[in-house]
Amino acid sequence: MIFTKKNSKIFPIQFLLYLLVFSAITGCKAVGPDYEGSPEMDVPENWNNDLSNEFVEQSDTQKQWWTLLDDPILNDLIDRAAIDNLDAKIALSRVEEARANYGVVEAAKFPQIDAVGDVSRKSNSKSATGEKNTDNYTSIGLDLSWEIDIFGYVRRSIEAADAQLDATIENYRDVMVILYAEIARNYIALRTSQLRLQFALENVKSQRETLNIVNARYSAELVSEVDVLQSEQNLAAAESYVPLFYADIDELFNSLAVLLGKNPGSLNQELKGNKGIPHIPEKTIVMLPREILRQRPDIRKAESRLVQETAEVGIATAEQYPRFNLNGTFGYDARGSDSQFSSNSRYWSFGPNFRWDLFDAGAEESAIKVQDAQLEQARVNYEKTVLTAFEEVENALKSYKEEKQRNASLRASVKAAKKVNKITVARYTSGLIDFQEVQDAERVIFFQEDELAKSDGSLVQFIIQLYKAMGGGWDNTDVPAQEISNEEA
């Protein structure tokens, strides 16, 4: 029923009745499924890999885990990247977009009020009416529309927008976790390449010294020209490695610059020189498997998507039911010299209306099936994300453990190789052995030193990989701008 000026005598009673009915029906449960929590999964109590004394089990990870490497340059790079990285800026902009979208959707639960007005001067046709009249017409008023959310279309839409906002916040955090790890990974790779370059240059120097010894013995007719040629060959081979390391170092310079939102080459002077590979921390925090579920942003994002898709099923279900609105108008129409705001100029109307699709050839049923399928996809994606997280932690722990043993063997091998090389050169100079033994000894020492440098870098890389796998690098206070989500944390 629409209330108008003609039936205004019954307006107060029926208006109160409408308000009572409206209050009752808006308290109805929204149609569609409610989110009942993340899927049950078989979460192990502990990791398969036995943790050594270097690892400490803890329910929380180190937020700024890179500070444990005790490298001020790395700390500074990460601080700058957190502000200037372009992927981070894009992710943050998406958070702001989702916040704005939430505001748009949430506004649907409130009345929509519009001001309307019109001023015109009109003249009628003398031929049609017999006289010529010209008058001024003025109209001003308010239009109101308010959706009565009986079946939960608006509430489910707000739930979906809220979950989408949560997902974009977790995506921002995931971008930051990846960014911190990527900065650290590239930085360690740079320091590793610089150390390997140092060993390559030392090998070139050693080969030149050996060539000088061989030339001296050749001049004294103690060895054949073959020894000289072999020594020259070794020197050329040693020199051939050097450009590869310079190229690798330049690539890492460029990668770090771009990660900081700068032009390639802008960090070359700042990062040049072999500063050494940072030492691994004495103790590394390892979270328990169940704690990973709340710490990794990609898992939290996957759950937010699950919440969103659950709400989307509710939205599709609500489309099968009528949608009701309360509509009203109030204003003044005046003509000519009539007073604009007199009681005679006043008009108003108030009442509900509804829209209900009675036949759509099964489109709404199909829409629900689409959302059910997307909900199932979100559930499977959540499970996959959790399993991937467990896999990454297990792999990092295992890789570190095995590399630690390999590193110890390489260190012992390098120590022995240096002794062998020193003895071999002395014996060759004395004429006790041929050049082949010198050649073999020098080849071994360079290879083992290079492998040790790579291993030292790998140990730190696996620590970085572990912290990234645990979702380290964020907390609940690191998303800029205001919080709108009801369940942000």
TrEMBL record:
Key words of the record: Coiled coil, Lipoprotein, Membrane, Palmitate, Signal, Transmembrane, Transmembrane beta strand
Which chain positions lie within coiled-coil regions?
A: 393-420
Q: Where located?
A: Cell membrane
What InterPro entries does the record tag this protein with? MdtP/NodT-like, OMP_efflux
Of the GO CC terms on this record, one is: plasma membrane
* Membrane topology value: Lipid-anchor
Q: Which residues form the signal peptide?
A: 1-30
Q: Provide an example Pfam family for this protein.
A: OEP
**Does this UniProt record's set of keywords contain Transmembrane?**
yes
The molecular function terms in GO held by this entry are: efflux transmembrane transporter activity
Read off the PROSITE patterns from this record.
Answer: PROKAR_LIPOPROTEIN (PS51257)
Name the family the entry cites: Belongs to the outer membrane factor (OMF) (TC 1.B.17) family.
Protein name, UniProt field: Outer membrane RND efflux family transporter
What organism, scientifically named, is this protein from? Answer: uncultured marine bacterium EB0_41B09
